Amino acid sequence: MSFALVAVLAGLLWPAAAGAQNREHQQMTADVRMLQEQAQQLALTIAALSQTLTRALEGLNARLDATNEAARKSFADQKLQVDNLANDVRVIRERSDDTNVRITSLRQELEALRSTVQALQQIALAPPAPAPADPNAPAPVTPLPVPQGPPPAPLPSTAGLSPEKLFETARADYFAGRYQSAILGFEAYLRAFPRFEQADDAYFYIGESHSLLNQFADAIAAYNQVIQTYPGTNSVPDAYYKRGLAEERLGQADAARASYEAVTTSFPDSAAAGLAKQSLDRLARAQQP
Questions:
Q1: DSSP state letters, 103-172
Q2: With contact defined as beta carbons under 8 Å apart, do 210 and 183 qualify?
Q3: Residue 45, SS3 per DSSP
Q4: Distances in whole angstroms, Cα of residue 170 to Cα of each of 111, 121, 165, 200, 230
């Protein structure tokens, strides 16, 4: 009896248990599907965020590149401006130095002109000293007129002339073939401005003018002035060489050889040294039998 009751109860309870298990399985399946949908939606959200982040990074990189390019360009422009400014400062400094040199030269010219004017005024204002009268002296005898040669050329006036103007005027006479006028002009320059930087050139042109006039002894004297008075100037090698040529024209072969050797020994790298070597070879060939 009891066994039958148990069987009946089991038969009644089995469908209920099976239905409950089926509903639980369906609930789990629904939950799994929901989780899958949420995971898929989360994956889509993550992909969208990744794309957004990628685009943001690309934009940031583009901005950084643009900023770097702008910084490089700005730096290049600033460097160019600094270089231009440095160049302008250098030009201004050079012009300032040139202006200082010109001011110094003008000051020297003014001093030289002042000295020249004062010397001319003293010469003009100084009266000649009268000779003392001797009451016992015989009456002066009027001498017979003596025929006079042509008056010497007047010395050029240096009043109102700057050293450069006086030098260029004399050099213009030299290149024009007016050698006597050139000599007078350079001598006037040396009297008025003996300490100026072109004094050695003035003596050298005097020597050249005398040489072209075949006045070789006077030319040698002028070249000696260059050599002895201005030993550190660029005219000295040429003065030695030209002195040798003038000595050759006077037949002073030994003196000419000494002048040429002085050029080749003391100024071996000068252009005059090459010419002097040729002259030494010529003298050597002339001595050969």
A1: HHHHHHHHHHHHHHHHHHHHHHH-PPPPPPP-TTSPPPPPPPP----PPPPPPPP-TT--HHHHHHHHHH
A2: yes
A3: helix
A4: 21, 24, 9, 14, 20
Cα 93 from Cα 29, distance rounded (Å): 93
pTM of the predicted model as reported, rounded to 2 decimal places: 0.49
Contacts of residue 288, defined as CB under 8 A and 6 or more positions apart, other chains included, come to: none
**pLDDT tens digits for range 113-172:** 555 555 545 545 545 444 334 444 344 433 334 334 344 444 444 444 678 888 999 999
Distances (CA, A) of 134 to 104, 131, 138, 139, 140: 56, 9, 9, 10, 11
Q: What angle do CA 111, 114, 115 make, to 5 degrees?
A: 85
CA distance 22 to 26: 6
b/e 214-231 (16+ beta carbons within 10 angstroms → b): ebbebbbbbbebbbeebe
Reported as a single tens digit per residue, the pLDDT across 18-64 is 667 788 888 888 889 889 989 989 989 899 998 899 989 998 899 89
10 Å CB burial of residue 211 (0-12, 13-18, 19+) is buried
The residue type found at 84 is N
Q: DSSP label at 177?
A: T
Contact 184, 155 (CB under 8 A): yes
Element (H, E) at 188: helix 179-192
247: which 2 tokens?
Answer: 């000595």
All residues at 6 or more sequence positions from 153 whose CB lies less than 8 Å from its CB, including other chains: 180, 181, 184
